Amino acid sequence: MKTGLSIFSIAVKNLSRKIIRTVLLLLAVTVVAGTTFSATLFISSMQNALKIGTYRLGADILVVPEKNASEARSALLAGEPTSFYMDKSVLEKVRHIEGVKEATPQLFIKPTSFSCCYNVDVFLMAFDPSSDFTVTPWLQRNIKKPLGMGEVITGRNVPVLAGDTLPFFGSPFTVAGTMEPTGMKFFDQAVFMTMDSAYEMAANSKTKSMQPISISRNEISTVLVRVLNDYIPDRVALKIEHDVEGIKAIVSDAVLNTVRKQLNGLMNGILLISAVVWMLALLMMGFAFYMIVNERQREVGLLRAMGARKLHIFRLIITEAVLISTAGGVCGLICGSAILLTFKGLILHSLKLPYLLPPPMMLAELTASALLFAMLTGLLSSLAPAILASRMEPYEAIRKGE
User: Fold this and answer.
1) Phi, psi for 177 (deg, rounded to 5)
2) 123 Cβ partners below 8 Å, 6+ apart?
3) Contact 54, 356 (CB under 8 A)
4) CA pair distance 151, 187, nearest whole angstrom
5) Are 15 and 321 in contact (CB under 8 A)?
6) Consecutive 10-residue runs of the chain (402 residues): their mean pLDDT?
7) Which candidate, 254, 282, 228, places its Cα nearest to that of 100?
8) Domain boundaries, the chain
């Protein structure tokens, strides 16, 4: 009993003697660790996607036709391909509104199901290179040249490589590059082209495509707005709606903040359930270890009579608990990850929210925290029984254990 190894080996033998009870305790920790880890990872991934997506969007306000406001919100959050148009004159009107720093148009085109990619529902988005502040900065950093006529940039979820050719409405486009993932379908399943390329594609579709599209050069889908630093986006949005008829000014932060609040509420609910499950597991493990100490009073007495100190007995009980909780924590991480991977698509389809795994460092922190939490569960549950066992007198423990 003078080395940690002897305590460890005795603890392992003790756990293996009552294999059914050990497995039940391990399952309790597995449920707690798996639930907490998978829920935290899922919420963190959605928050990460919102953060990166907001940065990529770069706009404070989206100006869209009033009747298509709900479609625009759905496109922003769920990336659902859509098509709606308004007169290009809205752009100049918006640019003259007080508080507007920059304004750039975009054109949304919903491709036919057989236009490009059979397993991805792509979203065609055209931008104006002369005023754009969403795609152009990425082009300047990565491609280091403007997007040419007949060229496109694709989101990460579109299964193509640079140099590939994509047909849209009878017109071939060359892939100039693929953007990094954001977790938002609005970007990851999008194909970006210039406005001139989009207008020419629409004109050529009348003779080259089985399903031609009719878009004139005087039509756009939305105006993305950046406001001046001293102005509040909500107030500028109200001013735009007042001065420009037939449009809806959607404040991007307001939409994303609503989602963040929903995620926080969901997280709080999950944490509450996890806390209840953790308390039940803690009580169950505490009671189990209390029973274990009572059953093994003779063993504890003999160990003390053979020279084991109180600290050795205390460490023995704690070691057993930590072994169970560590194994349960590892199982919880594996099971939680497997369940999340299996049902992620179904959950995201139901919630219609973005999803992107956190950076490796944050992922490592979440994993380590889950393991420490599992170990803490075992430590706390066995603390009182371990103290009780360490205080037993050898003779009294042997007599009671007979």
Assistant:
1) 180, 165
2) 75, 79, 80, 81, 82, 108, 110, 185, 186, 189, 190, 191
3) no
4) 17
5) no
6) 61 81 85 85 78 68 89 70 88 94 91 56 88 85 86 88 89 90 78 94 88 90 91 91 92 70 72 82 83 76 74 84 89 88 74 72 88 87 82 64 50
7) 228
8) 4-52+259-401, 85-220
DSSP output for 151-205: EEEE-TTS---TT-EEEETTEEEEEEEEPPP-S-HHHHTEEEEEHHHHHHHHHHH
Residue type at position 30 = T
Question: What 3-state DSSP class applies to 230?
Answer: coil
**Both structure tokens of 285:** 């493990």
The pair phi, psi for residue 101, each rounded to 5°, is -90, -50
Degrees to nearest 5, angle at CA 139 with 134 and 145: 140
Query: Quick check: pTM over 0.70?
Result: no
Residues with Cβ within 8 Å of residue 226, at least 6 apart in sequence: 58, 59, 60, 100, 101, 102, 103, 133
